[in-house]
Design goal:
Radius of gyration: 39 Å
Number of helices: 7
Oligomer: single chain
Number of strands: 0
Largest sheet: none
Helix content: 55-70%
């Protein structure tokens, strides 16, 4: 029985019956493939294949117009570049104060402000930039950052040992909050001044 089914199946498959009809002519649609070259020509000659590299004209680096227009020489002063480095730090301090960040994070950002102010003091000690309002404002903000960071750090240590009557009152939450709010106001004012300097 299995043999008969196999023979019938082979007879049906190999009997030659299949698609009876005409196929569509698709040759005109693919005619462009026969005429298009397989490899396209290069638009530019590679530098190593040039005839003589000495024929290339050198750039006129002695011409000031070339330097100013083509090379677009950096026209910002080093002082403005240093100021631009401080702006993101002050923005971090704003976020830290707004989010009521912990003392450790506050002190880390304050330390960064102090370090940048000290760097400016060393770099511009004998230069006219030390008379700029932005320079003086950064120095004042640095001193305030140091004072508030020290106050917050000392409050964590001494608050549990002191009473609120005399010496301990400076470490109260309200007193520290007032100092932080005043410092926040100074950070905002300094940040605005530095942005206007650019």
């Amino acid at each position: 029985m299995k043999r008969i089914i196999g023979i019938v199946l082979c007879t049906i498959l190999f009997s030659g019956s299949g698609y009876k009809g005409s196929l569509p002519k698709i040759e005109p649609q693919f005619e462009h493939l026969k005429t298009t070259p397989a490899v396209t020509d290069q638009l530019f000659t590679p530098a190593d294949e040039l005839d003589a590299p000495s024929k290339l004209t050198p750039s006129p680096r002695s011409n000031p117009v070339y330097i100013d227009i083509i090379l677009k020489k950096d026209k910002t002063s080093p002082y403005l570049n240093d100021i631009n480095d401080i702006i993101p730090i002050l923005e971090k301090m704003q976020k830290c104060i707004a989010n009521q960040g912990d003392v450790q994070k506050f002190n880390a950002i304050a330390s960064s402000i102090i370090d940048h102010a000290d760097y400016l003091t060393e770099k511009y000690a004998d230069k006219p930039e030390r008379f700029y309002i932005s320079f003086k404002k950064i120095q004042e903000l640095s001193a305030q950052a140091r004072a508030v960071a020290t106050l917050r750090c000392e409050a964590q240590i001494y608050l549990k040992y002191l009473t609120y009557q005399n010496e301990g009152q400076i470490y109260s939450k309200e007193s520290i909050q007032r100092q932080v709010e005043y410092f926040s106001h100074e950070v905002n004012a300094t940040l605005q001044l530095l942005r206007d300097a650019n």
